[in-house]
TrEMBL record:
Pfam families: Carb_kinase (PF01256), YjeF_N (PF03853). This is Bifunctional NAD(P)H-hydrate repair enzyme. Catalyzes the dehydration of the S-form of NAD(P)HX at the expense of ADP, which is converted to AMP. Together with NAD(P)HX epimerase, which catalyzes the epimerization of the S- and R-forms, the enzyme allows the repair of both epimers of NAD(P)HX, a damaged form of NAD(P)H that is a result of enzymatic or heat-dependent hydration. Catalyzes the epimerization of the S- and R-forms of NAD(P)HX, a damaged form of NAD(P)H that is a result of enzymatic or heat-dependent hydration. This is a prerequisite for the S-specific NAD(P)H-hydrate dehydratase to allow the repair of both epimers of NAD(P)HX. The gene is nnrD. The keyword NAD applies. In the C-terminal section; belongs to the NnrD/CARKD family. Its EC number is 4.2.1.136, 5.1.99.6. Residues 18-224 form the YjeF N-terminal domain. NCBIfam families: yjeF_cterm, yjeF_nterm. GO terms for molecular function: ADP-dependent NAD(P)H-hydrate dehydratase activity; ATP binding; metal ion binding; NAD(P)HX epimerase activity. Homotetramer. (6S)-NADPHX binds at residues 138-144, 167, 269, 330, 376, 442. K(+) binds at residues 71, 134, 170.
Length: 498
């Protein structure tokens, strides 16, 4: 049996679901909990060994940080196995080992009996440790890390040691994705039994590094037993839902998107959204923008039909022709913006609202019926009632509340973007911190609109657009520049899929 794999499952669960059901899943698989812990420690040791081999680190120093629960049990087992194969291993216990119970206590004893060193102080200059394993907290963690743990992690963060987390990086809440100050920043996390949704989104995603999966021989039984909370996917399968273009197809068959935005002096965002829309395959793309911006938006992208719009009546004729409308990029919040916003109340085709359009929607929740909203964290909070926001503690709750409030498929942007629709939630594998690059957020609504224009079903269109957008953001991150590469990636992926 392969002990760990980089191929991740498509269902994600809360850490609590895993804790509540692992015993039963083990029982149904004819496995005891202590065997499970043995396999968990063994999977981590196998990974560390493979890393050492690939880096030619013979007899490397490994520090295993241990806590007081079962996560520490996995750590002690890994420590013993690595010592057995000749690595120099020392356990730095951040809690008194007398707190360990049951299988974790047995694992501790076995390590000590084998001659393993356990110390309560930092055992060596951490730069000398080729590898540091984090077995302090796993699925049982919530809240803030104790101060002593934070200061230990602080010293590790600055050391040139390769960091491996056991199950979940300590400091990450595997159910909610809330992250403690000074949470462990792993290069690799070997996670057990099931993917935990809390690891996959927001700041938590960055703490995990690469995620490897170890089913411990009970993953199948677990997934039969428990319904997942989210799917975690690159949604590559959705590419098949894009209709194949007939050789004799023409632009009028491939949708007509109207993008509304770009207030006085703000031509950039709407141009980016419109260009992304065009390059992601929409048949016709029109832009309604402030008259001052027409030249700037059209410049170098002559496929766009750009209209200077002074007042709402100018917009009516354009709205009549549109099959998809995007409202908001660079719209602003002034009287001009508000007039166009309210004019969209007559929209009967799918409506994607982003950016300033969302701020105006927050102020006038009944005015428009959005099909898709694409908020970042701040915009999402604005969309909720003040009292509601107070009781929202994490990204999943936030996405769900926005969905309930707007009844629009909600795309909560950020690393591991959450897409929340009716009874379905997708956490996208892509969606990177490169969103921080100027303009990267602006292109998403354009890509979504283009896919809707091509008759891709709404949820699939959104998942796919977020995927394409994430890849584009990654490219942009590599370049250090705005890689407006959505269409290039799009056609590239289509080619790969044949
Ligand atoms: N149940 C089992 O037998 C198995 C458990 N496994 C491992 O066990 C882990 C879960 O173990 P546990 O449930 O013991 O939990 P942890 O080892 O994650 O946590 C240990 C203890 O820390 C406490 N704690 C939580 N938040 C805290 C905070 N902010 N400050 C201080 N203390 C805090 C908890 O109350 C818990 O008692 C998994 O992540 C996995 O690594 C695996 O070995 C597979 C088998
Ligand atoms: K851990």
């Amino acid at each position: 049996m392969k002990q760990f794999s980089a191929n991740l499952p498509q269902k994600a669960y809360t850490a609590q679901q895993v804790r509540d059901n692992e015993a039963l899943a083990a029982e149904q698989s004819g496995t005891t909990l202590s065997q499970l812990m043995q396999r968990a420690g063994s999977a981590v040791a196998a990974y560390v060994q493979s890393y050492c081999q690939s880096q030619e680190l013979d007899g490397a120093y490994t520090v295993v940080l241990c806590g007081k629960g079962n996560n520490a049990g996995d750590g002690y087992i890994a420590a013993k196995l690595l010592k057995e194969v000749g690595l120099r291993v020392v356990v730095w216990s951040l809690f008194d080992p007398s707190l360990l119970k049951g299988d974790a206590q047995d694992a501790f004893k076995a390590f000590v009996d084998f001659g393993g060193d356990v110390t309560r102080k930092c055992p060596l200059d951490l730069d000398e440790a080729a590898i540091t394993i984090d077995a302090v907290f796993g699925g049982g963690f919530h809240g803030q890390l104790p101060e002593a743990v934070q200061s230990a992690f602080d010293s590790i963060e600055n050391a040139s040691t390769y960091k491996v987390s056991v199950d979940i990086p300590s400091g990450v809440n595997g159910t909610t994705s809330e992250v403690s100050d000074n949470a462990f920043q792993a290069d690799v996390t070997v996670t057990f039994i099931a993917l935990k949704q809390g690891m996959l989104t927001g700041q938590a995603r960055g703490c995990c590094g690469q995620i490897l999966f170890a089913g411990l021989g009970v993953a199948k039984a677990f997934s039969k037993l428990v319904a997942g909370t989210s799917s975690f996917s690159s949604e590559v399968q959705h590419f098949r839902s894009i209709p194949v273009r007939a050789y004799d197809s023409y632009k009028h068959q491939l949708g007509h998107v109207l993008l509304i935005g770009g207030g006085k002096g703000m031509a950039g965002a709407i141009r980016l959204a419109a260009e992304a829309c065009l390059r992601s395959g929409a048949g016709l793309v029109s832009v309604a923008t402030h008259p001052d911006n027409v030249g700037a938006v059209l410049q170098g992208r002559y496929e766009l039909m750009v209209h200077g719009v002074e007042t709402a009546p100018h917009l009516h004729a354009l709205l009549e022709k549109a099959t998809i409308v995007v409202l908001g990029p660079g719209l602003g919040l002034d009287a001009w913006a508000k007039e166009l916003f309210f004019a969209c109340s007559e929209v009967t085709c799918p409506l994607v609202i982003d950016a300033d359009g969302l701020t105006l929607l927050a102020q006038n929740p009944q005015a428009l019926k959005a099909t898709v909203v694409t908020p970042h964290l701040g915009e999402a909070k604005r969309l909720l009632d003040k009292n509601d926001v107070e009781y929202v503690h994490h990204r999943f709750e936030l996405a769900e509340k926005v969905y309930q409030t707007t009844k629009a498929i909600t795309v909560l942007k950020g690393p591991g973007t959450i897409i929340q629709g009716y009874e379905r939630r997708n956490i996208n594998r892509s969606g990177t911190p490169a969103m921080a690059s100027a303009g990267m957020g602006d292109v998403l609504s354009g890509i979504i609109a283009a896919l809707l224009a091509q008759q891709v079903p709404t949820f699939a269109a959104v998942c796919l657009a977020v995927y394409i957008h994430g890849l584009a953001a990654e490219e942009a991150a590599k370049d250090g520049a705005l890689g407006l590469v959505a269409s290039d990636l799009f056609s590239h992926i289509r080619r790969i899929l044949g």
